[in-house]
Structures are given as C-alpha cells and as structure tokens.
Amino acid sequence: MVSLADYSPEVRNEVKLAREQVATLHAQLTRWNLVVWTAGNVSQRLRSADLMVIKPSGVRYEHLTPGSMVVTDLDGNVVDGTEAPSSDTLSHAYIYRHMPEVYGVVHTHSTYATAWAATGRDIPCVLTMMGDEFGGPVPVGPFELIGSEAIGKGVVDTLKDHPGCPAVLMRNHGPFTVGADAEAAVKAAAMTEEVAHTVWAAEQIGTPKPIDPADIAKLNDRYLHVYGQH
C-alpha cells in the first residue's frame, strides 16, 4: 500500500499546505451558514501528484485541524490520515479524474440552494451576478445515492451541458461546486446560496424577469476578463 512517505519532498510539502488551506476553508462554510453540524466537505487536488486532501467523515467543524484532513489518491484510496475520509470522497475523486481543470470541489446542504434541489428546478438566470458567476442558470443534476462515485458522475455530466458554470444542484441532495482551487469552489458555494435565496425571494414578490442570453454572455465575459485585479 502506497503511503505519503513514498512521495517526494515537493509532494509532501504541497500536502502540508493543502491540509492547512482545506482546514481553513471549512471554517468559511460555517461563517457563511452553508453547513450544519458535520454536513458538507471541501477538497483540494494537488498539482504535484494525483492526490487530494479532503475532510474526514462525520467530524464536527470546530474539531477540524490541518492534521485531521485526509489524503487520498484520485481513486479514493487513503494515502495518509488517521480518520476515515468524507463519504463523498469517491465523487470528488471522479470529478477530478474527469475535469482536469478543476482543483477544488465543495459540497454543502445550504438551505435555499438545497430547497431548489428538492424541487428539481434550475435556478433561472435572472440576476446580473448570476451572469457574472455562473454564465447562466444554476442547473439541477440527477438524483443519486451517497457513497459511490455516482454523484460525481452526475456533476460532471451536468456541467458538460453548462460549460463555465461552477455549480450543480444534485436533485434531492444539495449543491456541488468546482473551481480552479478549493477557495474558488468555496466562493462558488457561497454565491450559489446567495442567488438561490435572492431568486426565491423574487418569486415571492412576482415573476422574475429573465436576462437575454446575449447579455448574460457579455456579463460573464466582463466578469472573467475585466472585473477585479489582474
């Protein structure tokens, strides 16, 4: 069985940094009210080896430390760690194997996004911030049971039809988000909950007005290439 000691110093150093980052980012999930108790997870894929760092299963957020993060390969086999990895590990691993541009994955059960998932409805693109962040609606993926790579496959298959979108609402389950690193995936999770809440509120007032697809494309292009510091 391969262990972390079998990897180079470069890989072991990246694992150390990733453990610190992933532990810190889990605190962001509680800060933005995206999880309760032990639900949800963050993972980060390494750039120096086919490994990822992920939350241990069923451990309360206030007890998480860099040392409690689990290292697995991209088939979900544990390489280092004293705890069992998240029950979503195989799905995270599937996403990384099939989306090579992705280096961060997040799963939450945030209230409003999960409510949309329970209805089996996309979140329609009726906000400029949705055009910015998602480039269109937030799509719903298929219903799949927890514990295998089936959820990961559902995420990948859904995003193939929504290029550039970092979020999927897995039906009757909750949101999964992806990013260029774990921090980007956490941001996408927070934004998913924000738009889920806002569009829900808009529907209580009346009928939200859709944004023209040409304008959505312009919003997304500006956000990706002009907005922020470059």
TrEMBL record:
Gene3D superfamilies: Class II aldolase/adducin N-terminal domain. The keyword Metal-binding applies. Its EC number is 5.1.3.4. Keywords: Metal-binding, Zinc. The keyword Ribonucleoprotein does not apply. Its cofactor is Zn(2+). Residues 20-200 form the Class II aldolase/adducin N-terminal domain. InterPro entries: Aldolase_class_II_sugar_metab, Aldolase_II/adducin_N, Aldolase_II/adducin_N_sf. It catalyses: L-ribulose 5-phosphate = D-xylulose 5-phosphate. It comes from the Bacteria. Belongs to the aldolase class II family. AraD/FucA subfamily. This is L-ribulose-5-phosphate 4-epimerase.
